[in-house]
Amino acid sequence: LDRLARRLLVGDGSSGRRRVQIQLDSAELPGVVVDIFEDEGRLLTCFTCNQESTRERLCAGARWFADNLAERLQRDVRVQVQTDDPEDRCLLQVDADH
User: Fold this and answer.
1) Alpha carbon distance 13, 8 (integer Å)
2) How does strand 92-96 pair with strand 77-83?
3) Beta-carbon contacts of residue 69 (< 8 Å; ≥ 6 apart)
4) Cβ-count burial of 16 within 10 angstroms (0-12 exposed, 13-18 middle, 19+ buried)?
5) C-alpha–C-alpha distance, residues 66 and 43, integer Å
6) Confidence at residue 85, expressed as pLDDT on a 0 to 100 scale
7) What is the pLDDT of residue 4?
8) Are residues 45 and 69 in contact, defined by beta-carbon separation less than 8 angstroms?
């Protein structure tokens, strides 16, 4: 992700939740913002997409990504893929346990 990052924001937890937000700048994954934070004991990685083709591509790989992330980090993870439309998120959520 560091090669694809255009902008990186880090929240220190002073507002209630530690989090990292990465805005991607990539021809392979255009229009994606990734939020990473802990939620209900899981590491949550949420991909928000403003292009449907990118969302579909990330949905297709969500299970693989969740399983690999849980294995590598040795912790429970949740991967979410959604649109940036607040009225129709088209949320896909995949949990993986270590």
Assistant:
1) 16
2) antiparallel
3) 43, 45, 77, 79, 96
4) exposed
5) 10
6) 95
7) 53
8) yes
Give the pLDDT of residue 23: 81
Which portions of the chain are predicted below pLDDT 70? Answer: 1-16
Cβ neighbours, 10 Å, residue 4 = 15
pLDDT (tens digit per residue) in 24-43: 777 778 889 999 999 888 99
The pLDDT score that the predictor gives to residue 9 is 46
* Residues near 80 by beta carbon (within 8 Å), at least 6 away in sequence: 44, 45, 46, 47, 91, 92, 93, 94
Distance CA 88, CA 3 (A): 30
Answer whether 55's CB lies under 8 Å from 81's CB. yes
Which of 77, 68, 61 shows the shortest CA–CA distance to 28? 61
- Residue written as tokens 């990685």? 45
Cβ-based neighbour number of residue 38 at 10 Å: 12
Q: What integer pLDDT is reported at residue 18 of this predicted model?
A: 79
